[in-house]
Amino acid sequence: MESLQKTSDAGQMFDVVVIGGGISGLSAAKLLAEHEVNVLVLEARERVGGRTYTVRNEHVDYVDVGGAYVGPTQNRILRLSKQLGLETYKVNVNERLVHYVKGKTYPFRGAFPPVWNPIAYLDYNNLWRTMDNMGKEIPADAPWEAPHAVEWDKMTMKDLIEKICWTKTARQFASLFVNINVTSEPHEVSALWFLWYVKQCGGTTRIFSITNGGQERKFVGGSGQVSERIMQLLGDRVKLRSPVTYVDQSSENITVETLNRELYECRYVISAIPPTLTAKIHFRPELPSERNQLIQRLPMGAVIKCMMYYKEAFWKKKDYCGCMIIEDEEAPISITLDDTKPDGSLPAIMGFILARKADRLAKVHKDIRKRKICELYAKVLGSQEALHPVHYEEKNWCQEQYSGGCYTAYFPPGIMTQYGRVIRQPVGRIYFAGTETATQWSGYMEGAVEAGERAAREVLNALGKLSAKDIWIQEPEAENKK
């Protein structure tokens, strides 16, 4: 192909080209570089990090407007971040959490809001127990092989919730649980996929909890540093503003072309982008039919992440920690967490606008979103101070053409059993990373590291530098911090 070669790298031969400079692609590249493999990362944006993004300005110091939370059992991201010199701190849950439902605020402690109605209580308990027990039947690395895979994959989570729950109380909370965890609606997602998703995060309590759960900690300085520090290690082996448009593996070497008409030659490719975004790439020869169909069938979730900053953490005066679980159709935000810095400076509340509400609220002006959120916080926390923020930051991930949405791709009914098995099957000399291809904490930064390192080991095996039995390895447990 004709090429206007602008960089010295273009036309150079690499062992591996990694498509995507998020945590997954950079984890892959880091591991390959450590094995003295000549690797190049091509990133579409003018920054690394993908679905993680740490914004820095005078109002916020730093803020994670994308993926931020880590917790126990997320051993790979904890090991990697420690190796990169990053520290974590605990999200504040010293005071009471609140549950806002039917127009009233109920303070509580622990992972889940308590239920006082005895019938509803039984219904809740049965819901979590049933979901966890169904999850136990689903293999984390092959959910399509579960004994009831076909049956469960035909159902949406809405169907399953209606089947399990007798009370409206439990049904509504179950629906919120889906919104919060996978930024999509119960009627949109396969029951098989959602049950698998919760299971591979360690179950209903682990996925939803702050203390001892997926939301326990954040990185001091922000999660964007994970990718930024790997980029520093790799130096000129990471190319920004280089969206890949063409991958040709019809000859002895693979040719990779970018939007700015630069050509790179390599022996192997690792695709570390959301499955649906591979549809932006032209392949020669064309992808196998199953893969081609799969990538058209995995939509991304929808979320707007919103940070409201205040002069002081007024919620603590009421013995509230800043975590709110909000069940209200009119409320823009469904869940919040305290986002104050670990030293107590820059008090803030982080809130998610999820799924259907993200679509609805994306249509209005930023100032209207800000006002609606403040009014909600004032109502839920019973404090007029919520109406007077000193700063507001938000990120609508639905409008990001190089993410497609957040947190992760979801499987609509019928897709997992029909096409799921090809998610990480190599296509010729192309291997697949990205958090969607993980088997533990898929959808999280942890899953991104698992997938990136696994894809790197697949390539190392293909290069003859690693035996096949070493592709999948158990990660030792990270040392627990205070």
UniProtKB/TrEMBL annotation:
Its protein name is Amine oxidase
Q: Which UniProt keywords apply?
A: Catecholamine metabolism, FAD, Flavoprotein, Membrane, Mitochondrion, Mitochondrion outer membrane, Neurotransmitter degradation, Oxidoreductase, Transmembrane, Transmembrane helix
Query: What does the UniProt record say this protein does?
Result: Catalyzes the oxidative deamination of primary and some secondary amine such as neurotransmitters, with concomitant reduction of oxygen to hydrogen peroxide and has important functions in the metabolism of neuroactive and vasoactive amines in the central nervous system and peripheral tissues. Preferentially oxidizes serotonin. Also catalyzes the oxidative deamination of kynuramine to 3-(2-aminophenyl)-3-oxopropanal that can spontaneously condense to 4-hydroxyquinoline.
Q: What class of enzyme is it?
A: oxidoreductase
Q: Where does substrate bind?
A: F352
Which SUPFAM superfamilies does the protein's record reference?
FAD-linked reductases, C-terminal domain (SSF54373), FAD/NAD(P)-binding domain (SSF51905)
> Of which family is this protein a member?
Belongs to the flavin monoamine oxidase family.
Every Amine oxidase domain range: 23-460
- Residues annotated as binding FAD are S24, E43, A44, V244, E436
UniProt topology in membrane: Single-pass type IV membrane protein
Location in the cell reads:
Mitochondrion outer membrane
Biological process, per Gene Ontology: catecholamine metabolic process
Q: Which cofactor does it need?
A: FAD
Q: Which InterPro entries match?
A: Amino_oxidase, FAD/NAD-bd_sf, Flavin_amine_oxidase, Flavin_MAO
Q: Which reaction does it catalyse?
A: dopamine + O2 + H2O = 3,4-dihydroxyphenylacetaldehyde + H2O2 + NH4(+); a primary methyl amine + O2 + H2O = an aldehyde + H2O2 + NH4(+); tryptamine + O2 + H2O = indole-3-acetaldehyde + H2O2 + NH4(+); a secondary aliphatic amine + O2 + H2O = a primary amine + an aldehyde + H2O2
Q: Name one Pfam family in it.
A: Amino_oxidase
One function term, GO molecular function aspect: monoamine oxidase activity
Cellular component GO terms, alphabetically? mitochondrial outer membrane
- Matches recorded under Gene3D superfamilies: 3.90.660.10, FAD/NAD(P)-binding domain, Guanine Nucleotide Dissociation Inhibitor, domain 1
EC number, UniProt record: 1.4.3.-
Give the multimer and partner information: Monomer, homo- or heterodimer (containing two subunits of similar size). Each subunit contains a covalently bound flavin. Enzymatically active as monomer.
